[in-house]
Amino acid sequence: MRRKTTRLATRLGRGALFLSALSALLAPSAHASGYRLDALDPVLPGRSSYGMVISASGLVLGETYVQQGCPLSRWVNCLLDGLQVQQLRSVWWQQPTSGTSSTRAMQAAPLACLDQSTADTVNGDKPCEALAVNAQGRAVGRSYVPKGRTGVEAHPVVWPQVGGPPMDLSPFLQSLPAHGAGSAVGINDQGWILGRADQGNGTEFAFLLRDGLVTTLPAMGASSVKAKVISATMAAGDGLFDKGSPTAALIWTLGGPTTVLRTVDGSDNDIHAEAVSSAGHVAGFYWAPASRQGNRAFVWFQGRAQGLPTDPGFSSLAHGVNAAGQVVGSHCRTDQDIHGCRAVVWTNGVRLDLNAMAQAPAGFQLVQARAINDQGQITGWMVNGAHAYKGFVLTPRP
Question: What is the reported pTM?
Fold first, then answer.
């Protein structure tokens, strides 16, 4: 079995049990006492919630369910659903103001959309979706608007304040190549917005909206580009070069060269970039069938990519990375459902189980870590035996 390890992991040995036993000793001092857990309450009691992104100040955006009105055009479906239509919506959570020192609850508030009535309340689609937030609390994403008599189209939007209405960015994109639906996927602290636009037939291109001026990002020969994330100096996404060929990660240095990352372990990999840090790290995952691990998390830094420690019989995904190079994601048994997953953080080349570092509510297990900020705060979600999901925020204890 071929497996790429970090230098630290090599020194410690390849034994997964040995690494696990030393994890607590190798954890940084900032995390020596673990984390305080704040639960992300849903809008509707008893419904699921999910933490997706977190800002430098701890502002969290994610998803939960809300009660939705039933349109006349879908009355049959609503009747079959017992007129209890509940829709997944993008929301934000304010910092908690009360609770114990170990566990507190954060209250959700739905984001406003360009046109809330355009969403299909039965199929579960969201009328708007927030995908990123910066240190100033400005969020970006997409929101539906009517198109024709019965259709809808997604427009890229920015929320200048998450508690206020969104602004449609489509008027700023008139100089771009012909396209239809679009989405804003990232915003940095300078206010530059990364987006993607759909040209039809599964083809997309990436654009950068900077100080009111919009430009396309280099495709480097890719037939379709899926932009994902942006920092002050870099952006990243996925590129499809030939039909049926592996996906490569595209790493744009803003105002500089573009890197095409085609492999992590020396073989042809489907590589997906999911996060960038303010220090220049890129984290994501790649397909690693040679090691019988399915997807495997990786981190790229200063031109070098390496797979992150993943046990045999497990797959791993990386979704967030901060300036210290800490990567968060999940580590999952390949023969089990979501209950076989653990939310993890990779620190200094060592994988740490967040369940061992935070006190989850009774019956819950932390299964997915989605984002980490430079203060070390982590958001994601947990699940219990009844398949009830609840979002969380972990804050490092001093």
Answer: 0.86
